[in-house]
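lol forgot to send this yesterday, sorry. struct tokens for the thing we talked abt
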């Protein structure tokens, strides 16, 4: 089945100014906000009652989605919670939640006649996009920076991607902007500073996590999500809002150093928030409007979990038979801290999002 546009898709709406746009490619976010000096993501709009709220139908598949929801009963009892679950996104085909975004990006690229897709990636997104591009018969370029773990590069190349290594994240984005604006490749990820979210067609795929949680749980009060630029954070919240009239948990963004917390306290979200971390998947020094929007809409917050805390959580979950990369495990340490500080009430029903398994990543001291 060749991919087609969902006939229920009516256009895209800006998360910041609410401007309505047609069914067009808005890789650089809302044009109206850009004119005012702001960077803001757009999200898809559908006809009321749409059965399948995804922008593209018939996308290539590697059997992604429907990941397990693992109960962590012993930890729940230890922390005084009503329930605790881990959404194991590492069970997706290439080992991360990115497999929910990549099919839609690749499908839209093919629909528009592109022969190549491109992404800036520290690892998981690059492996995922390479796999789905290969599945669809498209070429793939991944821009990454020095210091990336060799396991990621090996897998990207094994899946047919052309991997370009540059010195800094800024160089990745500058290179990617030139390629995309020349019309030579279809982008999966952000390439702007300050950033917007990833490709608006692709980010819609993350709503599936919210739909599955609404299906599998009677209730959830708090969800902790490893967060860089907020694609997954927003997607889970949007999916829950679509799938349920009653599930409105607090969304907690887990980050390796203080960024979003500063914005929520009054800093300009367009600023730079440098920090150093081996949690490469969430270690960027920028914040997006979609992150701020989601946390405000859900009465949520951002919490810092440094590398030591991430490795501690990785070991703790490993002893329960769950292998995750450090940033994917970090929500457990964030949860412990919030419980200890009274930020999460006794008896709460909590979900940790395990974004990626540990097959390619750093392992902390044992």
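and heres what i got for the seq, position by position
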């Amino acid at each position: 089945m060749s991919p087609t546009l969902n006939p229920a898709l009516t256009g895209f709406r800006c998360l910041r100014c609410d401007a309505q746009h047609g069914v067009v490619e808005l890789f650089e976010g809302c044009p109206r906000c850009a004119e005012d000096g702001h960077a803001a993501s757009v999200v898809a709009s559908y006809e009321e009652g749409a059965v399948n709220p995804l922008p593209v139908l018939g996308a290539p598949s590697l059997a992604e989605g429907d990941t397990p929801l693992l109960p962590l009963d012993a930890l729940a009892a230890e922390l005084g919670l009503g329930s605790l679950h881990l959404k194991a996104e590492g069970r997706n085909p290439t080992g991360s939640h990115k497999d929910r975004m990549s099919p839609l990006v690749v499908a839209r690229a093919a629909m528009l006649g592109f022969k190549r897709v491109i992404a800036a990636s520290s690892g998981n997104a690059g492996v995922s996009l390479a796999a789905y591009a290969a599945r669809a018969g498209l070429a793939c370029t991944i821009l990454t920076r020095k210091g990336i773990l060799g396991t990621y590069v090996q897998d990207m190349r094994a899946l047919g991607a052309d991997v370009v290594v540059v010195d800094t994240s800024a160089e990745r984005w500058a290179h990617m902007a030139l390629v995309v604006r020349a019309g030579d490749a279809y982008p999966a990820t952000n390439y702007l500073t300050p950033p917007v979210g990833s490709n608006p067609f692709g980010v819609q795929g993350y709503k599936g996590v919210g739909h599955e949680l609404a299906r599998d749980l009677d209730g959830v009060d708090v969800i902790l999500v490893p967060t860089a630029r907020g694609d997954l954070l927003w997607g889970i919240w949007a999916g829950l809002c679509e799938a349920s009239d009653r599930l409105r948990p607090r969304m907690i963004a887990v980050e390796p150093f203080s960024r979003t917390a500063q914005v929520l306290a009054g800093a300009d979200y367009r600023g730079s928030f440098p920090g150093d971390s081996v949690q490469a998947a969430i270690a960027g020094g920028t914040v997006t409007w979609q992150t701020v929007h989601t946390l405000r809409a859900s009465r949520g917050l951002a919490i810092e979990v440094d590398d030591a805390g991430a490795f501690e959580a990785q070991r703790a979950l490993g002893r329960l038979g769950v292998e995750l990369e450090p940033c994917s495990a970090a929500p457990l340490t964030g949860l412990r801290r919030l419980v200890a500080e009274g930020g999460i009430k006794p008896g709460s029903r909590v979900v940790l999002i395990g974004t990626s398994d540990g097959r390619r990543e750093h392992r902390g001291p044992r």
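The CA atoms of residues 37 and 251 lie 27 Å apart. anyway ping me if u want another try
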